Structures are given as C-alpha cells and as structure tokens.
Amino acid sequence: xxxxxxxxxxxxxxxxxxxxxxxxxxxxxxxxxxxxxxxxxxxxxxxxxxxxxxxxxxxxxxxxxxxxxxxxxxxxxxxxxxxxxxxxxxxxxxxxxxxxxxxxxxxxxxxxxxxxxxxxxxxxxxxxxxxxxxxxxxxxxxxxxxxxxxxxxxxxxxxxxxxxxxxxxxxxxxxxxxxxxxxxxxxxxxxxxxxxxxxxxxxxxxxxxxxxxxxxxxxxxxxxxxxxxxxxxxxxxxxxxxxxxxxxxxxxxxxxxxxxxxxxxxxxxxxxxxxxxxxxxxxxxxxxxxxxxxxxxxxxxxxxxxxxxxxxxxxxxxxxxxxxxxxxxxxxxxxxxxxxxxxxxxxxxxxxxxxxxxxxxxxxxxxxxxxxxxxxxxxxxxxxxxxxxxxxxxxxxxxxxxxxxxxxxxxxxxxxxxxxxxxxxxxxxxxxxxxxxxxxxxxxxxxxxxxxxxxxxxxxxxxxxxxxxxxxxxxxxxxxxxxxxxxxxxxxxxxxxxxxxxxxxxxxxxxxxxxxxxxxxxxxxxxxxxxxxxxxxxxxxxxxxxxxxxxxxxxxxxxxxxxxxxxxxxxxxxxxxxxxxxxxxxxxxxxxxxxxxxxxxxxxxxxxxxxxxxxxxxxxxxxxxxxxxxxxxxxxxxxxxxxxxxxxxxxxxxxxxxxxxxxxxxxxxxxxxxxxxxxxxxxxxxxxxxxxxxxxxxxxxx
Length: 702
What we know:
Elements: E1 4-9, E2 12-17, H1 29-41, E3 48-53, H2 78-86, E4 92-96, E5 99-101, H3 103-110, E6 113-116, E7 121-123, H4 137-145, H5 147-156, E8 160-161, H6 162-168, E9 173-174, H7 179-193, H8 212-219, H9 229-242, H10 245-260, H11 263-278, E10 296-299, H12 303-314, E11 319-322, H13 326-345, H14 351-359, E12 361-364, E13 375-378, H15 384-397, E14 403-406, H16 413-418, E15 427-432, E16 441-445, H17 452-464, E17 468-472, H18 480-496, H19 501-511, H20 517-524, H21 526-536, H22 548-555, E18 568-569, E19 578-579, H23 581-594, H24 603-624, H25 630-640, H26 650-657, H27 659-670, H28 682-689, H29 694-700
Parallel strand pairs: 2-3, 3-4, 4-6, 5-7, 6-9, 10-11, 10-13, 11-12, 13-14, 14-15, 16-17
Antiparallel strand pairs: 1-2, 7-8, 15-16, 18-19
C-alpha cells in the first residue's frame, strides 16, 4: 500500500498522506513526505506544495506504538520531514480537515502556511499520554498563537476549533469550499507572489503577562495532583520564552525523553490502548450491523432516571420518561431543566441546544406511552421482585422488538431476563454511574441469553451518548461494585482495628484517589449499606468485622454528609470532613468485641489492604470471564471510581509494583483473615509465578 501519494495540479505539487484510519506518522509516512518534497523542489514548474491527508483528517499524530518499541532501522522520522519542510525553497501549505493533533499539528506548524475547513480541530493532546509535545510543538505554538493560548492548549491537551485556530494565528485561512481546491488556490497565489515565506521558528514570542507561568501552575494544582507531565509542559513553553529557538527545541526534547520513559506515561499510554480495545468483543462477528434506536423510554424520573433521560436527549433521541406519580414526574422534569440551565449558565451549552434537547423529552405517568419505543431503560429502586414485576408489565405494553434494559447496580440480570422468556434475547443490563448525565462510564451487562446484535447495538448507543461502554458478565455487583466491596470492607475493618479514618483517607488521597474510602462512604450515605445488611439479616444488621462501627453510626442517625455526621462531622453547608472522637470510641468497642485490640498502622499497610483486594478480586473476575480483559477493569476504575489516570488503573498498577509482590501480600493478609477477598486468585497466582503482568494476560487471551 502506498502511504504517501505525489501529484501535480497546475503549478502546485500535492503530497497526500493515506495511512488509514487516522493518518498516523507510522514508518513509511515520513519517508514518503520527504521524497515528495524533494521531487517538488527539483521541478522548476512547481511554485508551491500542498500537504494534505486522505480520508477523515489531516494527520492525527505520532504512531504511539513506537513509543515503546524500536523504530525500524533506516526509516526516516518526523524530524527529517520537519527539516525538509523548513529548508524547502518553495512554500509548503498544510491543508487541514478533520483533525491535526499532536505530531500532526507539529508538522503543520513547520509548514509556511496552514489553511483549514470549518469543523476541523487542531490540538496538542500529548499531555493525556503523559508526555509534552516532542517535535517542536511547545516552541512553535507560542510563536504562532501567543504564550497564553499555547499554554492553555498544551497543558490541557484540549483542541481548538478551526475558527479559533484562525483567530489565534495558528492557521492562516478558513476555507469555506472544497479543501483541496481552496488549498491549491491559496498555495498557487503565495507561490507565485514570491517570498519571503516566514516560518514559525523565525517569529518572536509574545508573552501577554509576566506571571503567566506561575498562574498556570497555581491553576492546575488540584487537577494535576500527583502528576509530572502538566508541569513538564509548562517548563517546555518557558523554554520557548527564555531560550533561542534551537536551544528551546533541545530543552523540549530533553524533557520529553524523561517523560516518555516514566511510569506515568506508560500508564497513560496503557489507558489509550485500553480504550481502543474496549469496543472489541471476542467471538462477536464484526459484520453485525447495530440497530439504530429512533425512540426511547425511561422508567423512573429520579436522580438516575433523569440523568439517563438527558443522555438520550443529548444523543438526539426522542425519549419518554415515565413516573408513577405526577408530582414525582414534575419534580424529575424540573431537575432535568435545571441541570441544562446550569450548563448553559456555565457557557458549555447554548440556549438553543438546551431548547432542542428539552423538546425531545416527554413526561408521562402511563407505561402504555412506551408502546412504540425502540429501547426502554428501567431505573427504579434495587429490589428484584419490583423490577421483575415491572419487566412483566413492559413485556406486555412494548413492541416485540423493543430492547429492555435494567439500570441495576448489583442484581442478577439473568434472573430479570428469564422473567420475560419470550424476549430474553432483548434484555440486558445498563449500569450507568451517578450522576448519569455526567459520568462517562457505562457497564453493559451481558446476560447469558442476549442477542449479539442487541449487545452491539447497546454498546453503540452508549458511545452515541458520549459514554465509555464496558462489557461485564453477570455477577453480584458486576465489575466495579463487586471489586469495591473489598476496598471499602478493609477500610472499615482497619477503623475497627485502630486506624483513624483521616489516616486511611489521607493515604488513599495521596496515592491519587479523588477521595478516601471513608469520605466516599459518608458522601454516598452509610444508610445504603445498613439497609442491605438489615435485609440480609431479616431486619437486623449483623455485627461482623467492618460493620460494627457503621451499624452504630446508623443507629444514631449518622448517615454521612446528608445528616452532617457519619465517619466524620460536617459543619452546616460544608463538605469538609472533621474528625470525630466518638468514632474512635465505637472502634474501641469493636476491638473488644472481636478481640483484635487497637494498634498503630503505617501508610504501607493501609495502602496494601485497600488496593490488594481490588486487584485480587479483579483477577477472580477475569478468571470467571466476567470481564473480557484486565484493561477493561482498569477503565472501569478510572472512569467510575476516581482511580488516578496516571496510575493506569488497579490492574496496570499491580504490574508496576510486581504481581509477585501483590500475591505475596495477599497470602500474608489471608493468614490473618478468612474473608473471601483475601483468597488468592488462580490467575494472579499463575501470573505472579511466571513473572508476567495483566497486560501479558490480555495479549494471551484475545
């Protein structure tokens, strides 16, 4: 396959990169561009050169696979292309459509000119891979767009629109017609006009304010907690201001090389490839054509139902939300409207878009209004008999082809599917995370009987909603919540053994978690777990290790933030946790009851006892086939549970510290506890014995 084509149109040479799907700068592409540049510069009839991408976009950037494996010997690299463009005797015009990201934008900025079509975007997203731009992006972008805009783009990794790129000075012209025609016209004009054709490297850097760098560091403190790369990006842009261009390039490269070899970058690149793999379902034919859902229904207008309803409207799908009580329905619709209004007030949505989305939402108190819906999502409370009764009613009032899904967090979706035997091929689980209109994660729970086309259609719907859908098999709690029981369970047990809640939460916060487990328990509400324990004990919440203290707290009406008291105290109007000596009293009572005695804890034990159960249960989930791959488990925890992205997820992190270390720790703690999450998984044990990682497991089992 020819990755780069060379053609001539009038007096302009056209170099086209054709490396689907995204025109990455893979081996062969740089060499092809260099060859085309040489051919154009040796042709006296050529006055200018257009560099353009075939297919969906210009050039997406570097081929990330080669960050961790050697580049083919003798193959030209991006640096050779940049040199070829900047030493070209004829102006080079980058013609941008779709996207020019990372190395793609760096390549475009080396060109003498850039033209772009409306709808295209340009950006430097490398920070999301744990690296700064490494081919001059941090040196050229400030010279084109100014330091402030360059800092914003490079440190956030977020792209800008075509219109913004022109107003900032990144691109020279917006092409409102066919891109190639417009680029040829522009190139011919500048080529025939003669020089000089100024390069980005020869421009002066405009610094809008003296405190830009200090202000940016302060701005990102919270978001970049624990990370190195955002600060490395700032240092690179500082070099553009403080050093001559070539010295700035050298400094950028020096910082890049350190970052690309770091655990942080390896973790974030793991996440990138994990997201690519998540949509691949082994054993399901690639030829399946997903159904398109033209209308939808949601049963339940509470917090979850309202958020799911918004997801349908956001995807442009008409949706009817049904609530049994008119007052509850009105309340739910009002909250939906307020949520949209808040987004408009923050400038993230136009009033026109809000009005269009609200127009797609219809409220009703009658299930019969769902008769024509292509898909219905149930979002009522977590009681199996109630859910099965509802599915029976939906089976009678919806059309035979309608897909029915449950938004359950824990329950057996196979049992729900079997309750409607005639349509069990159209039943599965869709576990949204709260708030459903905000959280990106969606666990799609694959029942034993679901039709493959239905499964792929719901996955496609999730992506249309802007979600990251992850397939899970059926088990109690699916992937995320099943693993979470060991994490929260050990935190609660350690409190009863003498660890202070604030100590446990500090260790996990410093590890990178968004919140510690006990603060999260207070946020979610301690009464939720208490209700489950009472249901399991015929109305009595049994006192077992890990439940004694929360049982006492709930008996006192201390449910967490909602009552201003839980594991912590909360001042009215504040979410800041304040340690409470009374919790220590309850912990001492638990220690006496279970004969464990209060003792001191170090940070290491707290970290291990919180995270090793996550990994061990995750390995068991793999062993049982509940998760398709370890990287899916990582995505669940990164997108649904506040696990730090720069750690790569619990399964990836386990490989960083060594699965042999984790397995040894699980064995050690299992000698002191007979709880199920300390029973060593066979998959973890075997991988540890063989010196392998969960990435190795994924490669061997796909």
